[in-house]
User: Fold this.
Amino acid sequence: MQYRFTLRQKVRDYECDLQGIVNNANYQHFCEHARHEFLHAQGISFADLHARGIDAVVARVTMSFKTPLRSGDEYLSCLNVSKVGPKYVFRQDIYRLPDHALSLRATIDNVCVVNGTLSMGVPELDALLENEK
Amino acid sequence: MQYRFTLRQKVRDYECDLQGIVNNANYQHFCEHARHEFLHAQGISFADLHARGIDAVVARVTMSFKTPLRSGDEYLSCLNVSKVGPKYVFRQDIYRLPDHALSLRATIDNVCVVNGTLSMGVPELDALLENEK
Amino acid sequence: MQYRFTLRQKVRDYECDLQGIVNNANYQHFCEHARHEFLHAQGISFADLHARGIDAVVARVTMSFKTPLRSGDEYLSCLNVSKVGPKYVFRQDIYRLPDHALSLRATIDNVCVVNGTLSMGVPELDALLENEK
Amino acid sequence: MQYRFTLRQKVRDYECDLQGIVNNANYQHFCEHARHEFLHAQGISFADLHARGIDAVVARVTMSFKTPLRSGDEYLSCLNVSKVGPKYVFRQDIYRLPDHALSLRATIDNVCVVNGTLSMGVPELDALLENEK
Assistant:
C-alpha cells in the first residue's frame, strides 16, 4: 500500500497501561500527531490555524486494533487523505517495526470550523489535496 | 434512552488542548473509565482480571463527536453492553451537563484474551450480561 | 493537618502504567486538577483567566512520592495556599483512601503572566488569600 | 554543560493545554522517556526489569520551569546520573531548539524496589554508573 506521509516513532513507556501494552486511547494521539506532522511538512500549523480562527476538529473516528504495541517497539505511522463533502478523510495505518505487522487501521474524519461555524473546507487544506494528484 | 450504567464526571483542564476543547483521545479515556467503573460496580476489577491472565482488550472503536466538552463542563458517561460472538459490545454515550447535549456517541468492541489466546468470553463477564435481562 | 480545600477522586485505570501503579506524571495532573477545582469553588476559572490574558503558570514543582496509588484506589487531594513574593505557593498532599496513607507531598509554585509579562500577582487570586485568614 | 545522554524530540500538539503551551505534567513524561531511552541504549529495559520483579520508581522530583515549549518546538532532553545512598539521581535538562533556551531543569531521584522491598540498588544499574567514569 502506498501512503502520502509516513512518520517513524517509538513507544514511550508511559503510554503503556497495566496490561503492558499501549493504551488504546494513545493510538488516537499517534494518529493526531501524524496528521499534524503531515500538515507541518506542507507548511501548515495546527496552532496557527487555530490562532486565525480555523479549527480542524475530529468528527468521527473508526479504529480497528490489530497487533498491540509494547514497550520498546518502534512503529511507522502512515496516512492518506481525501475529501468527501466537507470532510477531510484521513486513512491512517500504524505498523510495528521491524516486522511491519499491522497494529492499527483507522479512518478519521475531520471538519473545519471557521470562527465557530462549520465550513465546507479551507483553501490551504484543499490545496494540499490538489498537490496529491 | 435507557442505560445500564451512568457515571457523572467533570472535565479536567489538562484534558483540553490548545483549541480549548477536550482533546478527542480523552473521550476514549472517558469511555474506558466508564466501562471499568461499570465492571467495578459488578465486583469485577480490570486489574484483577489481568493478574489472573484475562485481558479485556479493545478490538474496535467507532466514535462520533458531537458537542465538544470544555473547561468546567460536567458530563454524564452512559453505557449499555451486549454480546455478539466473542465480542462484548459497549454502546457508550456522553452527555454534557446540565443541558444533556450529546457530546459523544461510541461503539466499542472488546474481546477477552486469556493467557495470550483469544477466547469466546469469560464466565464473569457473561454473567454480567445475564443480569441485564 | 488542616487544609483549605479537599477533593475526593478515584484512580482511573489508564493512569496506571505497566508497573500497575499510577504513573508519576499523573500526580502532577491530580495536583493541577485540585488547584483548578479550588479556584473554581471560589468563582475563578483557569480558562477565563487565560481568555482575559492572565496565565497562571507553574514555576517550580517539588514532589515526594510515598505510598503508590493503584487501580481501584480512591484518594483525597488536599491543598493550602500562601504567597511568597510573586509566587502563589500551593502545598498539596494526596492521601489514599480509606486508610489515609500519605501518597504524595508536593509544593507547587505558580506565578501569573499577564499579557506575556510576569506580574506580582492578580487581584482575584490575592483576594483568595485574604479570605483565608 | 556535558551530558551523559541526549535525546532530540518534538512537541506533539496534544501535549499542549488550553494556554497553548506544553502542560507541565508532560515534562515529567519527557524526563521519564529520556531516562528509559538512556537505559535502553545501555541494553536495559524498564519493562524487562519489571517482569523480573525489579521496579525502578520515582521517589522525588524537583522541576524548575523556564522557557515554555509550544506547538511545533523541537527540544533536546539531556541527562546525567549519579548515586547517593540507594538513590539513582538523574539531573535532567530540557532545551528548546534551535536556540537552546533552557526549558526545564529537573532532579529526579529513583529507587529500586525488588519484589516489593526497597533495595540499595541493582547490579545492572550500578554497572551503568561504573561505565560513566
